[in-house]
Design goal:
Length: 446
């Protein structure tokens, strides 16, 4: 028998401590699912740099900490949300603190008929047939040790189910506030999105930290998009400087469905995110936009995968990184055009801007094609600011730092403009400018 690592041994003990306090603990199907996931975690362990998909990201800083699950509510004053949340975004609002739903800070009123929105903890207490039959199935073949940890310990998250033809007029905005606590805490957040035929929604997942201590946000989002359904998913990762963030999204798309992903990474000491879409029927579409800004000594890793399984699929992917100081970024994007997926139209592009001699990026775009009638392209660039452009701006009276910041903003703007919601776009703009020298001055020039 293989000797377990101290991290796995800790999580076995932690599961025994909190199992009876986890949502749905009295339901056999869910308890079996949790224990099966724990068994797989014991067998596989947490990822290591020896695995190809994780070779640029060392998770030992996470593995060496004994994160615990909060079993009681964590009260937060409403005024705190103004410092961390998007208070001016008209939305159906859910707030979670340390992985637990805060009803007093949330507002899910005025939902249309056919729309069900609630915290996952409530959904697990009285599961629908869709939840019982589908929970976990979107991860088929794509689970990591962290997603197995999530399946074993999931405490809460967003549950969204829309009947055929239902369209939400406002985004679903979910704010997740992490906290270190007396002992390092982990929040295993699970989001379940089920859209019926021709349903439409926008989901905003916003992750932020309340204090300076280490904590772990470990998230999994499962998306089931019915025929003709449209979903815009925006993930804002603004974790605290000593926070850790590991997340994955897994989507199963039916005929003519469309999902637009917007991934923004500005925070966390170490962040790893996987975005996976399986285009399971004719005419399905996926767009993935990403902006990552590692400064200080942040490490931000983004992996994406799009599987074209049927004809006439379309995908677009655009990632941009701005790396400063000792920041490190990783981008690995894989597009697979399977046999029989004729008339696929796919483009992938990644670009990184290095603003410091100590910044580093590892980019690996991948394109696998097993069909002979497709239109596919991919490319990757890594470089520095154009000094001729800097000189031009300086000759027009713009200072050196302001010129460099203005060009950096222009580089990232293509990804930001892909956000259709004006409030979200303005928030991401402000977040980027806050990380650039003379950001306030640049704001006046825009």
């Amino acid at each position: 028998m293989t000797r377990m690592s101290p991290a796995i041994d800790h999580y076995l003990s932690e599961f025994a401590r909190v199992e009876r306090g986890l949502p749905g603990h009295d339901q056999r199907w869910l308890s079996n699912m949790r224990r099966d996931a724990l068994d797989r975690l014991v067998e596989a362990g947490l990822p290591s740099a020896r695995q190809e998909d994780w070779k640029y990201t060392d998770v030992r800083p996470i593995a060496k900490r004994s994160f615990e699950t909060r079993t009681e509510d964590d009260a937060v004053a409403a005024a705190t949300l103004g410092d961390h949340g998007l208070s001016d975004l008209p939305a159906h609002r859910l707030v979670f603190v340390s992985g637990r739903f805060s009803p007093g800070l949330s507002d899910m009123a005025a939902l249309p008929d056919g729309a069900v929105l609630k915290p996952l903890s409530q959904a697990l207490a009285a599961p629908t047939e869709a939840l019982r039959s589908r929970l976990g199935t979107a991860l088929d073949g794509q689970a990591s040790g962290f997603s197995e940890l999530n399946s074993a310990f999931m405490t809460d998250g967003v549950y969204l189910e829309l009947a055929p033809g239902v369209a939400l007029d406002k985004p679903v905005y979910a704010l997740f506030l992490g906290r270190a606590g007396e002992h390092p805490l982990m929040a295993n957040l699970r989001h379940f999105v089920h859209l019926g035929e021709n349903a439409q929604a926008t989901l905003v997942e916003h992750y932020a930290g309340l204090d300076d201590g280490p904590y772990l946000s470990n998230t999994v989002t499962e998306i089931f998009a019915g025929r003709g359904a449209h979903l815009a998913r925006c993930r804002l990762q603004m974790e605290a400087d000593r926070g850790y963030h590991v997340g994955s999204a897994h989507a199963l798309q039916q005929r003519d469905s469309r999902i637009a992903y917007h991934n923004v990474d500005f925070g966390a000491r170490l962040a790893r995110t996987d975005t996976n879409s399986r285009l399971n029927a004719v005419g399905a579409e996926a767009d993935i936009y990403g902006l990552y800004v590692p400064n200080g000594r942040r490490h931000i890793d983004n992996h994406t995968r799009i599987d074209h399984l049927h004809p006439h699929g379309r995908s677009r992917e655009l990632y941009k990184g701005v790396l400063m100081e000792h920041g490190r970024g990783v981008f690995n994007g894989k597009i697979i055009v399977h046999r029989g997926a004729q008339k696929t139209d796919s483009e992938q592009s990644s670009a990184a801007l290095l603003l410091s001699k100590n910044a580093e990026v590892d980019a690996k775009p991948e394109l696998e094609i097993y069909a002979d009638d497709v239109k596919c392209a991919h490319g990757s660039t890594v470089g520095q600011l154009d000094e001729d452009a800097v000189f031009y701006l300086r000759s027009r009276g713009v200072g050196l730092d302001a010129a460099r910041s203005l060009l950096t903003y222009s580089f990232a703007d293509e990804v930001i403009q892909a956000l259709e919601n004006r409030v979200l776009r303005r928030y991401v703009e402000s977040g980027l400018l806050a990380r650039l020298p003379n950001g306030e001055q640049i704001q006046e020039l825009l």
